[in-house]
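Hi support team,

I'm opening this ticket because the web form for multi-chain structure prediction keeps timing out on my end. I have pasted the exact lines I submitted so you can reproduce it. The total is 1032 residues across two entries, so I didn't expect it to be a heavy job. Is there a limit I'm missing, or should I split the entries? Thanks in advance, R.K.
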Amino acid sequence: MMSNSKGWNIITEWLAQKGQQPFAFQEEAWEHLLHGRSGLVNAPTGFGKTFSLFLGALIEWIDAHPTTYQQQQNNGLQLIWITPLRALAKDIGRAMEEVIAELNISWKVGIRSGDTSTQTRKAQQVQMPEVLIITPESMHILLSQKGYPKYFKHLRTVVCDEWHELLGSKRGVMVELALSRLRTLSPGLRTWGISATIGNLDEAMQVLLGPGNTDGMIVKADLHKQIELHSIIPPEIEKYPWAGHMGLKLLHQAIPIIEESRTTLLFTNTRMMAEMWYQEILRLYPEFAGLIALHHGSIDAELRMWVEEALHNGVLKLVVCTSSLDLGVDFRPVDTVIQVGSPKGVARFLQRAGRSGHSPNEVSKIWFLPTHALELVEAAALKTAMKEEVVESRQPVMLAWDVLLQYLVTLGVSDGFDPAIAFDEVKSTFCFQDIEHDEWLWILSFLTTGGEALYQYDEFKKLEITEEGLYACLSRKISMRHRLHIGTIVSDAMLKVKFMTGGYIGVIEEGFISRLSPGDFFTLSGRRLEYVMIKDMTVLVRKAGPGKSIVPSWNGGRVPLSANLGHMLRAKFNEASKAAKSKDIEIKSLSPLFELQNFLSYIPREDELLIENIYTKDGHHLFVYPFEGRLVHEVMAALLAYRISQLTPITFSIAMNDYGFELLSDQPIPLTQENAHQLLGMENLMIDLQTSVNATEMAKRKFRDIAVIAGLIFQGFPGKHKANRHLQSSSSLLFNVFKDYDPQNLLLRQAFNEAFFYQMEEARLREALERISHSKIILTTPTKLTPFCFPIKVDSLRETLTSEKLADRIKRMTLE
Amino acid sequence: MGETYFSYKDQKWCLSAQRAIYWEDEKALLIADLHCGKSAHFRREGIAVPANLVQEDLFRLQRLITQFSPSQLIIVGDMFHSTYNNDVEYFNTWRHQFPHIQVHLVNGNHDIMPTDVYVRLGIQQHDHLNIRNIHFSHDPALHAAGEAQYVMSGHVHPGVTMYGAGKQALRLPCFYFGEEYALLPAFSAFTGLYSIKPAKDEPLFVLADGEVIRMQ
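Hello R.K., no limit was hit. The queue was backed up. Here is the completed structure from your submission:
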């Protein structure tokens, strides 16, 4: 067996010298790797998942070169390690280098990410290190270099770390496409993923290995981490806000927890919340100055690195952070985690909880701090979900035409591609396994003629067909622009923020700054700043004393509730009617609120759907509570609004949260006990969905990312703002133009598909409607706003649905 | 329904929902921000916007010409989007249908082609154009109007947000007639909107579904 091989013995002896012995799952992974198999390792952080594959690769190297394994240098790329986070690369690289040094192997470990200097990249291209740690984006940039196949001649293994993070995103599709290319270039290549626990591990592996691979292995670490969840419960629940998202009122209850812990991570869901929490803590507890830090994606990378270092050393008492610290290496001193507001999913909550207490036998402690009263129900739901081990699945992205277009141009700017080979490779990926030949032809024509070969005046240029029949990009300008735009993370234009006197603070979204006037105050990196002016893509500011300021709200803060948590939540609300006797302290403490809800309206059981019809000075409100999560509610609201609008000309404004949704109109809403079931029924579902105007609005929002990824929106070269203004356009303008003049465009279809299948989660919607059709509908008409409806009503992000003629609507509108 | 007559600053304007004004007393059709060649410019740089956008815009202009039979067409700036490209050639062909119509261009910031191109296309260029008491200037901020003159401009691509009961909101292109200057909506369909906030008593017309609707 392999386990007697020289390499195996050297590695186990090396571990033994350090007083360690391999975990069973590590040996299992080595075994598979040595047999040339591919697969997926499922292990929690902190248990040596890196070593399960890296040491396997070393064993193989030693076995293949038993006498010269220490001497042989410059062996070419052996192992590619794909990581979703730049920040992770450094620590993984350090760990690998230590092993190599102690074993006296002459391998080199290189990192290639957006942070890597041009000099290092050039050196790598002259002589590739044996191990390359790389982000999906940098992987594609490598594929855009002339003569790239030579780098992969000796490649044996690709490992995709934190695969659960990439799966389900377009970055995952980038990995799939890159792997399809590498498998042609290095036959016999093994692909391994490392993933935390998710609901669909088998599918996760299939996506990584491609649908053609049927003998992948899943290696599971049978190691369980103990997690303790506590809720911070407001002393007087009656007085705790019904709506809100900051939770600062409970700050004084969080302080003792922080004081009693060694180091605490306080997670918020948005960067804005993190800024507010940081400031409030310093304002009310100045003694924390110097012991507390802020960490989120908009903060200067150097400062973030300092915070991470300080976390390692244990000099910080508290770090206020966002998902920026969800992933990554473990900070040993951290023994407590506080989650402010709902984490919206079981998996994310587990991940954050896992940031405390790392040693295999230590207990992870996490505190839940509600931002409004009803959120406590989510804590109770999370507890049950954790006990029953229900973890969400990540749905892989299918037929992402935007990513495919970008990838083909990438191949076009390097060596060009043969369409027959490219088609086979693309079709071998999970994402594009169902691609039709017609669609492929459209893609090719979109790249060569811009989709309109027949227009005689056309000057479209992107890819051209060479004499050898390769599709290649011959324009230097377009090539250069393309290389700068490789990637699928679309963000608002970000501006640097600097002091007038120099000194970099961080970055901020252009959209936020455009709403400020010089002299306004805003908060960034925990500092209060006075906005002076914008110059050369940089926001210049002055330091300001204490006082009021505007806190930037970054986009992307609204994560929807997962289906699993939604299900648990409904079950918990089912207990609400007898809350005073509940086993869950969270539910029990909410009983005064539930009594009020019951007095004003009703508390629905699991087999009931509550609808509240309330009149206020804003108009007629209809509140519906399916407890299915924001995304499903958005679609259900649009559907119900559309169907009601078929009964009578009416205009709605729509709002929703994870518990329910609201239709608001200036006219009475004709929903009755008699027609309610039909209005929420399954009949004509697809047709009604597609006809409802909001499908277009949703698709338009999806089109924004698609247009950028597919290269339709040129974001300008970094630092050169003005030079390309003749090429600027907005995605909504492009969307309208395509819809009116090129409705068959595949990217437009993708936008609608994304809206329907990912955003709308059609399957989940059907399930919910199915459930409603068997539920009893309770229609109440409370005389004032209820605890349930209040958080929805105050939501300011709204959409409109109408069946009235535009001109008729305008005649009732005003300019203020 | 597609037009509304409106008398202002001693002149009678016919506002068309097709983003143009017909000035009957001068037999002049007024438009702004045609941005001809914008789609070709994008396509030449590898950005595949539909190629027929210029044809659609010019076809709409053609129908306006057939409807009003003007003797002159006044374009208040940004007639062409960028440097010379094939859309400009398409305009040339289109232009030959109307040899009798004078085309006046009030130069905008996008009008950067060499003079001889405009001459060949039969376009008379002006930095500003004065007819009766009206002073045409592409950018309202850069006008050179005398005291008794009223400024008509483009450049801004004006749009306005309207609000209704039940928290409704809607943004549409508009004609704006302020005390100092008027703004024409951008003619090309391939242009975005910039929100303006008119004062309470300033006349404003929004364009919606083929109708011109006066808001104030």
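A quick check on our side: Chain A has 31 helices and 26 strands. Let us know if the file doesn't open in your viewer.
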